[in-house]
Design brief:
Blueprint: H1 5-43, H2 50-69, H3 83-86, H4 92-128, H5 141-162, H6 169-196, H7 206-214, E1 225-226, E2 237-240, E3 247-249, H8 253-282
Antiparallel strand pairs: 1-2, 2-3
Helix pairs in contact: 1-2, 1-4, 2-4, 2-5, 4-5, 4-8, 5-6, 5-8
């Protein structure tokens, strides 16, 4: 069956018509839950730093998105409740594209529209009511790109798992992802060591240059030791020298493309596998 835009549009509308009450309920619940989690920090006298806000905002996106995404393709699995959906006169590509638009485009967009003002409001309460001085959530193009890349990987993995698992889809997908993530995290330091073992910083901050100049040392002649054993995806590289133990250095543009390219490859591979699984199920 070839792709048809009218069929795709009708399936898109059908998805909304059958689930709009649930989606509207979720749109109300997500900001409330996000505000409750964030308010827990100032209420318990814990610091609501910018980093903490970023973690809460990012992880909430992954969790809520995973729960939402686990329902998008699971209706096409061969079970009693899914027979009606399998008989729909639509192609596998149309089914997948509807799930991608709802789960990977509309959901994160709506989450940002609803969640970001909540984070700013809680930060204002933290400052005005609780008297804490913390920076607000950091929304930069780099942070958005990193969070969205990770979201695409996680969400595509959830979509893939929803076609293989019949019960407790999100929980099984979450545990599977954690196992895979931990496995690659263990290899991450080794991989970085192999790729970047001889990398040396080429530019230095004015503060660092001034400090070294006061000591009569030329920074460009220092032999730095790569200390990225525990570096994570998208993180800055860390180097050590006999003059300083921790020097965070931003990766060059030639290195930055590596993690983003891996995200794209994983994302496309998982969606392709999901498409073939849908075709297999439809047969």
């Amino acid at each position: 069956m070839h792709f048809s835009f009218p069929r795709f549009f009708n399936l898109f509308i059908k998805q909304w018509a059958e689930n709009k009450k649930l989606y509207l309920l979720g749109a109300i619940a997500v900001p409330i839950i996000l505000a409750t989690i964030t308010l827990f920090f100032p209420i318990t006298d814990s610091r609501l730093t910018s980093e903490v806000q970023n973690i809460i905002f990012g992880f909430s996106l992954f969790i809520f998105g995973g729960i939402f995404g686990s329902s998008l393709l699971s209706v096409y699995t061969p079970k009693s409740s899914g027979i009606r959906m399998l008989m729909l006169p639509v192609s596998s590509l149309e089914k997948l594209l509807v799930a991608v638009i709802y789960g990977l485009v509309l959901f994160p967009l709506l989450y940002f529209i609803l969640g970001y003002p909540v984070m700013l409001l809680v930060h204002q309460l933290d400052s005005e009511v609780f008297g804490n001085l913390n920076r607000s959530i950091s929304v930069t193009p780099r942070n958005i790109k990193i969070i969205y890349c990770l979201f695409l990987m996680i969400q595509s993995f959830v979509l893939f798992c929803s076609l293989y698992f019949k019960k407790f889809i999100f929980l099984k997908a979450f545990l599977s992802f954690i196992i895979i993530f931990l496995f690659f995290s263990l290899l991450n330091g080794l991989i970085i060591k192999i790729i970047l073992s001889d990398t040396q910083p080429t530019e230095f901050s004015q503060t660092y240059q001034k400090k070294m100049n006061e000591m009569g040392i030329d920074p460009k002649k220092i032999n730095f030791e790569n200390a990225t054993d525990n570096a994570s995806l998208f993180s800055d590289m860390v180097f050590k020298s006999k003059y300083s133990d921790h020097n965070k250095i931003k990766a060059d543009e030639t290195v930055n493309w590596i993690p983003f390219s891996l995200c794209v490859i994983i994302f496309i591979s998982l969606l392709t596998a999901s498409l073939f699984k849908l075709k297999e199920t439809q047969l």
